Amino acid sequence: MASLSVSRHNHLLSGLLPARHKPTSRPTRVRMSLRDDGPSIAVVGVTGAVGQEFLSVLSDRDFPYRSIKMLASQRSAGRRINFEDRDYVVEELTADSFDGVDIALFSAGGSISKKFGPAAVDRGTVVVDNSSAFRMDEKVPLVIPEVNPEAMQHIKAGTGKGALIANPNCSTIICLMAATPLHRRAKVLRMVVSTYQAASGAGAAAMEELELQTREVLEGKPPTCKIFNRQYAFNLFSHNASVLSNGYNEEEMKMVKETRKIWNDKDVKVTATCIRVPVMRAHAESVNLQFENPLDEDTARDILKNAPGVVVIDDRESNHFPTPLEVSNKDDVAVGRIRQDLSQDGNQGLDIFVCGDQIRKGAALNAIQIAEMLL
Ligand SMILES: NC(=O)c1ccc[n+]([C@@H]2O[C@H](COP(=O)([O-])OP(=O)(O)OC[C@H]3O[C@@H](n4cnc5c(N)ncnc54)[C@H](OP(=O)(O)O)[C@@H]3O)[C@@H](O)[C@H]2O)c1
Which residues form a coiled coil (predicted)? Predict the structure, then answer.
């Protein structure tokens, strides 16, 4: 049986990714995580791209826990995972998996969340769900901790009272990390987003497919197309989410609807075009903003420099702006190309370019920041 090893020094997708996609080692620190006064936690979908990142982020942030359950499908049951120098065995997910669990981090897809999320809540577990299953449910907070922490202030772990909290879509999180500080100052009336989304957003198998296809194309062989139904290497295409009757795909509509819910602003106008690009990890987004109040680019740059979880990379002289590679395995969302939109009068519009690691801030890190607020 294959084993996975995830620790602070060897974190992320070990056994799933080629060495060059793994992050570099981090310095040794004394661990404070395993402690009697921490919550009991469960990671659902632990063998996947996000699940592995959950373990990495838990370790990096010294998230306290008294026990941790590793859950996946029957396929992976019995697989061994080394986490923080202890061996764990992956268990098959069942409703009973949540007995005695305070916090469950879900990343096994929407159908699994729909089936097992409510079962966990019934057992008193607070579920932080990475899928889209509950995001638009009015009773479920949709939270980016830097943006709308107040939406979940009534929920705490370990009270015996279960609850669901949804993690927004990865593209929404990355976009709003940059757009929200500007929105707070000048109020966004309209936002136009174009995304350049990485393979990792479609899971570990998509990353493997991109790597395999790249090798196959270079060797003159026909590319293997299992996850995506067309050539991905040396190509780009409209996001693989289903296209709806209004012509938008589901990924694009998530950005529209989730922004309104997170900003608690049903009037904000959002439109998006979501594209898959042959990048292994980290999404990029071009974001055009129209404001109610004037906001010049220097003020916007200062606001972004001081925004939590945001770093500005905006060096016009050397043409250095954010790239997916530079933000891979990083917590912060990078913003650059900050400039006045010439097509709008006065200082009512800005263009920015944003990059963020969507497995990290777009998924696992955001969820664990939520979990930290439950303690
Ligand atoms: N990748 C991203 O950047 C990203 C960002 C935000 C949100 N998300 C969301 O997070 C979820 C997982 O995405 P991912 O990219 O990590 O996918 P992934 O790499 O394909 O991993 C899927 C995980 O789900 C588990 N799973 C599948 N069927 C299961 C079942 N019947 N019971 C229990 N576990 C099951 C798999 O376990 P086995 O090993 O047993 O198959 C695996 O651990 C999705 O809802 C996705 O939309 C992903």
Answer: none
Contacts of 134 (CB under 8 A, 6+ apart): 113, 117, 140, 164, 166
Q: Give pLDDT, residue 29.
A: 57
Domains identified in the chain and CATH numbers: 3-133 (3.40.50.720), 171-359 (3.30.360.10)
Q: Among this protein's residues, is 170 annotated catalytic?
A: yes
Task: List CB contacts of 358: < 8 A, sequence separation 6 or more.
Answer: 170, 171, 173, 174, 197, 198, 200, 201, 281, 282, 283
For residue 169, give the ligand 1 atom closest to its CA.
Answer: 6
Looking at the chain, the whole-number percentage of residues with pLDDT higher than 70 is: 91
In the chain, which residues have pLDDT < 70? 1-32
Between CA 262 and CA 184 the distance in angstroms is 13
The residue behind tokens 């098959």 is 92
Asked about 274 being catalytic, the answer comes back as no
With tokens 């838990």, the residue in question is: 58
Tell how far the Cα of 347 is from the centroid of ligand 1, in angstroms. 43
317-349 per-position pLDDT tens digit = 999 999 999 999 999 999 999 999 999 988 999
